């Protein structure tokens, strides 16, 4: 498997898992311009292994609410990197807000050659 690392200085490319709304790609295009949703690349019915492999080969970080990817990142490391959205039941707008407000953290995570997992929690009030 040939793996494509992110280019230096490039925004992290996000691959939104099926448990997140496809509209996030458009809403976050200003911050994560080369991102896509599994549905948009024909992987909406794919198993986790196929999505994992595609993300690693194409240089995506997987954005998910699925704990299976968190566990996989502990066992396998990266690539791909995993952004685990731990917001519980929430709206698409809340997911968008967290990815916007934590953009610097996401960028640093993407540039960190050692980090495999970034956990995004609901902001404190």
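-> sequence recovered:
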């Amino acid at each position: 498997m040939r793996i494509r690392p992110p280019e230096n200085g490039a925004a992290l490319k996000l691959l939104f898992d099926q448990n997140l709304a496809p509209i996030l790609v458009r809403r976050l295009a200003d911050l994560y311009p080369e991102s896509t949703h599994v549905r948009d690349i024909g992987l909406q019915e794919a198993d986790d292994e196929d999505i994992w492999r595609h993300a690693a080969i194409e240089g995506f970080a997987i954005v998910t609410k699925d704990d299976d990817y968190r566990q996989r990142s502990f066992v396998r490391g990266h690539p791909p990197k995993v952004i685990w959205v731990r917001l519980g039941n929430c709206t698409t707008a809340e997911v968008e807000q967290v990815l916007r407000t934590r953009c610097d953290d996401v960028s640093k995570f993407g540039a960190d050659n050692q980090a495999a997992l970034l956990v995004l929690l609901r902001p404190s009030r």
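The beta strands are 13-16, 36-37, 60-64, 82-86, 117-121.
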